Amino acid sequence: MASGFTLDKIFSVLVDQQSLNDSMATTMLSSGVTLMQQKKYQQAAVAFKQATVYRPDYLDGYNFMAQAYLKLGKRKEAIEAYKLSVRIDGTQDSVHVNLASIYIEDKRPADAEKELRAAMKTNPANVVAPYTLGQLFVQQGRTQEAETLFRKVVRMSPRDGNAYYGLGLALNKEGKTDEAIQSLEKAVSLKKDFSAALYELGTAYAAVGKTDKVQQQISALSALGTSDGDTNSASLTELIRHPKFVGIQSSNSSFTRFSLPMDLFALDSTLIAPGSSREFTMTFLFDSAMDTASVMDVTKWSITKSRGGTAGLYDNGLYRPTDIPVPVVPTYVSYDPANKSATVAFTLYQNADGTGTIDPSKIVFSFMGKDVTGKQMDTSADQYGGITGNIF
What are the residue ranges of helices labelled H in the chain? Predict the structure, then answer.
């Protein structure tokens, strides 16, 4: 009898102690939550840790502790808290996702993938896990795997703009541009003011040459009035920007401006002698930093007589026997990166009779090169119409 009484007593004491520990754990957790609301994250972390001391299997204690550590920027401690939590209960799919997010930011993709797959296995209905894993795969260039995951997310959440954005992103990376456009258009229709989707849609339109559609996305991004929207708008603008001629530098150009047909020697008195020649220069200004090798490659340039259209007819459409030919390519080209200017040199020859004529206003200079980023010239501004100032 005495022995039984002693065991009952001990059991009663243990039960009371456990109840006390549970009560203290709950109290410390509540205190920690209050401190979190007050943004006292260090004190909150201490309170949550104390809660797990009173109750070592307290999942909320570990999970809140991880959140407090993240607020403090203590990522290593946050990871350890989450790992303790899933060690106690590995079925917490949301905790696996939270842990994976930290791994992704810490550039630990293998660890992140492991956690996301654990979340998907634990809860097949979890939409965040496959979506996050799809984004991770896009970052790694595993676009086909990402596409498969995003298609799954679309099936799971067909009214979620994020799902279609992810799918469009993967398809765009794979070069499946038409499919990407369809998915991204769906994304922005379901989720208004979706900066990332608007930007990605703009890149897809750019890939198929729909510049007007790209401009629509640029305008939509600017209208958001957010820093993210402004950044993406600027990026799209740069994406479709191509270098242009913006004018000439008269002070460095010896091919003097004239607007009417004239005798060749009027350009330079030395050309009055039959069979004489004279080198002339024209200095062109660009709106972008250009690729030096491309600019100095004379085969990228052409010099022609106007044949109609915007440039107008050479010599007002009246060719004369005395009209001299113009060189097809320059003699040489120099480039000044500081001023973003190219000086084109070419030689004109007087005819054997000394009666050569020319219409300087209808000489067309064209450049088919690229800028420092590899972009070709804008076809709406890659020609200069003689020396009348027309860029087209």
Answer: 2-37, 41-54, 59-71, 75-88, 93-105, 109-122, 128-140, 143-156, 161-173, 177-190, 195-207, 211-223, 227-240, 292-296
Instruction: Report d(CA 348, CA 332) in Å as an integer.
Output: 14
254 closest CA partner among 390, 388, 391, 387: 387
- Whole-number Å distance between alpha carbons of 97 and 123: 11
Share the mean pLDDT of the chain. 92
pLDDT digits (tens, 9 = 90+) for 13-46: 444 557 778 889 999 999 999 999 999 999 999 9
Q: Which domain holds residue 274?
A: 245-391
123 within a domain of the structure (yes/no): no
What are the structure tokens assigned to 49, written together? Answer: 């840790």
CA distances from 32 to 92, 150, 262 (A): 21, 38, 91
Tell me the residue type at 130: P
Q: Is there a domain that residue 79 lies in? A: no
Report residue 194 as tokens: 């979706």
Residue 261 lies in a domain: yes
In a domain, 257, yes or no: yes
Q: How many domains does the chain have?
A: 1
Q: Tell me the pLDDT tens digit for each residue of 131-150.
A: 999 999 999 999 999 999 99
Predicted TM-score (pTM) of the model is 0.78
